[in-house]
Amino acid sequence: xxxxxxxxxxxxxxxxxxxxxxxxxxxxxxxxxxxxxxxxxxxxxxxxxxxxxxxxxxxxxxxxxxxxxxxxxxxxxxxxxxxxxxxxxxxxxxxxxxxxxxxxxxxxxxxxxxxxxxxxxxxxxxxxxxxxxxxxxxxxxxxxxxxxxxxxxxxxxxxxxxxxxxxxxxxxxxxxxxxxxxxxxxxxxxxxxxxxxxxxxxxxxxxxxxxxxxxxxxxxxxxxxxxxxxxxxxxxxxxxxxxxxxxxxxxxxxxxxxxxxxxxxxx
Length: 267
Description:
Blueprint: H1 4-17, E1 25-28, H2 38-45, E2 50-56, E3 59-64, E4 69-73, E5 79-83, E6 93-99, E7 102-107, E8 113-117, H3 119-125, H4 138-146, H5 152-156, H6 167-177, H7 190-209, E9 250-254, E10 257-261
Antiparallel strand pairs: 1-6, 2-3, 3-4, 4-8, 5-7, 6-7, 9-10
């Protein structure tokens, strides 16, 4: 599932390529992927411009010149591809937004969605999401962490605690902080709590730099999107050597969460 770095990569790319371009056509192939009737959705979206693309947690927000908003959550399996009918992937597209010959394809939206919302509806939809990692200050983080007693891995992926982090980057953050992913939050020392905070931004910033870990290209010839997949430290590297201490990376399953870590340097 795309996390903050993947959605940030998409956001930057889309702002550069479709901002202020009029939406000339809208195709809905799966009505369950939207939240209105098909014709209502088309009437509000077709003819509008996307004035800006924002990110909130794992969502993208398309601001429309009509005053409405499109809220995207790709969920598990969701992808986007920007191109033309000539280089479009041979995949089922649930939604297609056209900007002249240019097409933004939404693929794999079986669980994901693209909802048409007013400003008040958008605010309500996002109201329970926690603070953004790049905006979160140390004091607030430590205060929020102090009230928690559970294991770190489930806590870091809890969107009401902190926004945009999922399975991949929670593992990478715990590795950077040298903390076992299933340590209890209330058992961490002050130093470990500060190390955890100090690890969040660098891990996410590095992932954005490498285009995230989702390796489906965003456009023809895309070499950046997904290259973090080749640069993870522990995620999906079971049995490989730890890049820090040379120990062997292990996988551990806890409730519904899988996690990868180095037992030698993440005590």
